[in-house]
Structure formats: structure tokens, C-alpha cells
Amino acid sequence: MPPLTAMDSLATSTARRWALCSLLCICLFSAGLLLGSRPFFFPPPPPWEWEHFSRLQQPPAPRPPPPAATAYHDHDDSTAPAPDAGPGDLASEEQEEQDEELAASAPAPAPATDGDGEGSGKCDVFDGSWVRDPARYPLYEAAECPFLSDQVTCRRNGRPDSGYEQWRWQPRGCAGATRLDGSTALEQCRNRRLVFVGDSLNRNMWESLACILYTALPDRSRARVHDISSEYKIFRAMDFNCSVEFLWSPFLVQLETKQDRTKALKLDQLPAMLQRVIGADVLVFNTGHWWTHTGKLRAWDHLERNGMLVKMEGEEAFSRALRTWARWVDQNVKQTKTRVFFRSISPQHKGANWCYNQTAPIAADGAIVPWFPKSMVSIVERSIRSMRTPATYLNITRLSELRVDAHPSVYSINRDGKPLSLEQRQQPIMYADCSHWCLPGLPDTWNVLLLASLIMR
Ligand SMILES: *[C@@H]1O[C@H](CO)[C@@H](O)[C@H](O)[C@H]1NC(C)=O
Ligand SMILES: *[C@@H]1O[C@H](CO)[C@@H](O)[C@H](O)[C@H]1NC(C)=O
Ligand SMILES: *[C@@H]1O[C@H](CO)[C@@H](O)[C@H](O)[C@H]1NC(C)=O
């Protein structure tokens, strides 16, 4: 199957061919203005044209400010000692051991629960089952959301079945409090800035929320998608002063290309561009898949801490990186202003639960053989427990594990960013994508649960 690494670099590879037809688009755009009939402002653009259409819509590109000169450094406590740094010169190593102990004794992270359920505390929105609900789902049609990327528009790529779009997550005993309609979502986003930070699975989630909001707009011409770079995207609903952003940072910690072109993963440092998200109203982080890549797919050549090469297992590195992230949140996020979420690991369906040809979810009590080490999940949960700024854990791993039917499989794109050819579709072992999720589809539910959790504060 195409590795995530390759998928993630696709965004840039397709840019060139869009540039070619931009002239044509300018003409179309002017024609649309002349006609002035907003609902038919444009015929649904062919899939490959949307991205540069959205670029056209942009006002003169407001370049983001260049990243601050210095990256956040986890051990750079010299100027402002971390509130939890005990006796001034506590070595970082000891500090980390302390954190570890703290983590071990802390109570479990509070999952976002549904306050509206009978007897609050009893209702866990992440525990439940999938029910078919074609009256309410999908929340939008793919054709209505022209900025959906080729990677995830399964129907447009030829997927013949559509049942996978019609499932609603039914939390056990939560009295329907997790139903969502687009206008409620828009109101929730009013005067707010939501930022997703993470890998392409969080981009999947960003696209989903942008579509939910966009299709609910009374006037869709009052929305913009800014592709500032392949690593930074913004959706804006202008009449609602609502913005939903995506910042690509698949490890959360910094991956740095050295002068000799080797890549160092700095376990104690976050990318400088993360400064940009400080002050947002809602932050949704994730990381996971990239840590499990091995061999040629592994993105780093070596690991670094305190500016020195270190050797450790992937899981230990993952754990250290999450602690760096947790401390960054503790030190930079104002609890009164910002609500922090961590989205749990999104399951891939390989091996025994291969996604190819699947058209129905696994029954709630069905057998699931998770592809990822369970220990990764506990590392995440432990890191969140140890935070002073509580992050809400969006515990979507299990409910997503059941959705073996919801991946693009062979209705995705190849390394060149083009929908798979018939020939390629017949080689699912090579090409099936069982990591990302079709849209409309499962990530819509993640967003329903995210927005529900925001209300339940
Ligand atoms: C996440 O959900 C799973 C399955 O419902 C559950 O076993 C696990 O304890 C939950 N984790 C947390 C931290 O709530
Ligand atoms: C618009 O939203 C931002 C948050 O993204 C907020 O800081 C600002 O105050 C809002 N503007 C108005 C006029 O409410
Ligand atoms: C997948 O589905 C197609 C069409 O229904 C069928 O021809 C093919 O044999 C199936 N492949 C597998 C591996 O199940």
C-alpha cells in the first residue's frame, strides 16, 4: 500500500499542472462575476481544478509571518524557568524522570463525556455502536464540497458503494446529545479559531470540518480556502469570523534536515512554526503513524536530544517526543483562552482486517486485530495524564477500528497525485490505502464528537 510518507508529499507534486489552466480559470471566474447568480456562481468544478480555483479565490496572498528565529526548545529553561522546575538547576533528565513518576500515579485522563446523558459521568461518547442512518448521513455530499482532495473523495474516484457514508455513531446511554447539524457547527465556530496540528490524518479531519461548515453556509461565496503551503491550510467562513486551520507536523517534534542532507528528529524540540498556533481557541493535535515506519519509510536518519545523537527504540522516542509536546502545551497554552485536544491514534486496517473490498463495519463484538502496538496508545494516554494543562482525549481509536469499510482502499490516488488507474486498482496489495478515510465518512464523526466535547466543557 502507498506509505503515508509518499501520500503526504503529494500535495506539492500536483501544483504544476494546475498552474497551466489558471488562465482559463480566471476567464471562468470573470464570467461567473458577470452572471452574478451566486448559487450558480460556478458549475461544480472538475475535481482536478478545485485547488487552483480556491487559490484564485484568495485575496492577495497574506503571507504568514516568517517563523520565529528560534524554535521552541524543551530544555531552554534558562530565561523562564518552568513552573514545575523544582530547585532551579534541576537537570532535564531528572525532570523527565519526575514527570514519569507523576504520570504513573496520576488518575486516568478524563475522556470527553456527554454531560447531557442520564446521570452525568455515566455517558462516554466514545463507547457505543454504529447504526445505519441514511436520513441524517452523510452530513454533506462530496459534490457540494469542491475543495475535498482527490486522496479522500472515494466516490469521485470510482468507489461504487456508498453505504459507508451512512453510519452514525451512537454513544451508549448518551441520549442523542452528539447529533450535529452544520448550522450548529457554524455557530460554534463563530469568532473562533480552530487549529489542527499533526499528520495527514489530521488533515483528513480538517477537510471534513471545513466541508461540514462550508456546506452549511447560507452564502457559500463567503468562504475561502487558503493553501498557504502544502503544510499550512486555512478555511475561513467570513460572515462567521470562523477559521479552521491545518498545520502539518507529523511527529509534533522537529524533523530537521542537516547540511549533509541527513534528517535528525529532535526529540526535545518543537518546530518554530508552532508558535503560530498559540492563542487559538481550539487546538487538536495528533501523531502516531510516522513513528511506526521502519526501513526505507522511516523519515529520520537519527534521533537527537540536547543536540547529541541518541539511540533508542521507536517507542521510547515516541514517548519522549510526547512529553516534549506536553510540556510545550503546559508552558505556552493559556487555559482560559485555549481548549486543547489530542486525537487518539487512527487505526490502519492491514493484515487480518485488511480494508480492501470491505463494505460494512465490523460488528461491535467482532474480532479486531489492531495493526499498531497497543503500547503506543498507552504512551499517549500516559503523556496526557502528566499534563498540567488538561488536554481532552478524543478517544476515537476503538470506534474507528470498527470501520474497516471506511478507507479509500483502491479509490484513492497514486504517488503522482492522480486517481488510481483501472490497472492500478487491480493491484490492491500495491495500491490500497487503508490508512486515510473517505470523505464524507468517518472523520465527520470525529468532528461531531469534537464539537460535542466543546459544548460539554
Ligand atoms: C478509550 O476507549 C477504549 C474503548 O472504549 C477504552 O478501553 C479506553 O479505556 C479509553 N481510554 C481512555 C483514556 O478513556
Ligand atoms: C474574530 O475571531 C477572532 C478569533 O479567531 C477573535 O479574536 C476576534 O475577536 C473576532 N472578531 C470579532 C469582531 O469578534
Ligand atoms: C473484491 O470484489 C470484487 C468485486 O466484487 C471481486 O471480483 C473480487 O474477487 C474481490 N476480491 C477479494 C480479494 O475479495
Task: Please provide a brief summary of the model.
By secondary structure, the protein is α/β, with parallel strands linked by helices. 30% of the residues lie in helices and 15% in strands. Strands 5-6-7-4-11-14-15 form a seven-stranded mixed sheet. The chain has a four-stranded mixed sheet with strand order 8-9-12-13, with no helix packed on it. It has a two-stranded antiparallel sheet with strand order 1-10.
Main structural class: alpha/beta
Low-pLDDT segments? 1-108, 113-120
Q: Give the strand line-up of the largest sheet.
A: 5-6-7-4-11-14-15
Percent strand equals: 5-15%
The structural domain count equals 1
Overall average residue pLDDT? 78
Shape: globular
Q: Span between N and C termini?
A: 40 Å
Question: What is the chain-wise order of helices and strands?
Answer: HHHHHEHEEHEHEEEEEEEHEEHEHEHHHH
Number of contiguous helices: 15
Main sheet characteristics:
7 strands, mixed
Describe the structure.
- Residues 59-68 have a biased composition (Pro residues).
- Residues 52-125 are annotated as: Disordered.
- Residues 122-174 form the Trichome birefringence-like N-terminal domain.
- Residues 179-452 form the Trichome birefringence-like C-terminal domain.
- Keywords: Disulfide bond, Glycoprotein, Golgi apparatus, Membrane, Signal-anchor, Transferase, Transmembrane, Transmembrane helix.
- The protein has helices at residues 4-8, 10-13, 15-20, 22-35, 50-57, 92-105, 182-189, 200-216, 289-292, 314-332, 374-385, 397-401, 422-425, 428-431, 442-455; strands at 72-73, 128-132, 167-171, 193-198, 223-229, 232-237, 242-248, 254-257, 263-266, 269-270, 282-285, 302-305, 308-310, 339-343, 392-394.
- The protein is α/β, with parallel strands linked by helices and 457 residues long.
- The protein has one domain.
- The strands form 4 sheets. A 7-stranded mixed beta sheet has the order 5-6-7-4-11-14-15. Strands 8-9-12-13 form a 4-stranded mixed beta sheet, with no helix packed on it.
- It starts with a helix and ends with a helix.
- Mean pLDDT is 78; it is low at 1-108 and 113-120.
- Residues 191-193, 241, 243 line the site of one 2-acetamido-2-deoxy-beta-D-glucopyranose (NAG).
